[in-house]
Amino acid sequence: MSLRIGDVAPDFEADTTQGRIKFHDWIGDSWAVLFSHPKDFTPVCTTELGYMAKLKPEFDKRNTKIIGLSVDPVSNHERWATDIKETQGYAPNYPMIGDTNLEVSKKYGMLPADLNATCDGRTAADNQTVRNVFVVGPDKKVKLIIAYPMTTGRNFDEVLRVIDSLQLTAKHKVSTPVNWKQGEDVIIAGSVSDDDAKKQYPDGWKAPRPYLRIVPQPRG
Question: Catalytic residues, which ones?
Fold first, then answer.
């Protein structure tokens, strides 16, 4: 299947390092980040899992849950956690899905839906497309999809930045410009007329072009 932004994130049940979950129930009223890995005991993923554990308090502040996935059994994940702790300084402090039958990877379009296989005998190269980041909203819809090659570590600071933008723009009728960071100016959404914008922004706005209306970031 081809998963797109705005689609409902496929629900699933799976075993994790923190017990069995039903994905939509596990998300609840929170936001969620699902990030996937092609194999346990791989070098780039080892660094990523440790950094995500370090960043978890920042995701917590944003009411965002983290969950990892790797195409290996949960028992392997638990052994891998020791390596991650010893080499990165942080062990995963979030659940890791064991996708041994490749069900979740196929539901999320990371492996072919008609692939008739399990994790047994498959290498990281076989699973190299299982390198995605999905951000899912409380409405269970996909808000962001980023796919990475195996040789490039992910930028999870960027994922935090995008979540800040997603949460802001879900609450206010604004968009965020290039390289925007929390606290910087934003753009009034194109769907808002000038008359309506005047009610919300009585002090006006900067407009280098009529379609580019810049205001301070809304608060609250």
Answer: 45, 139
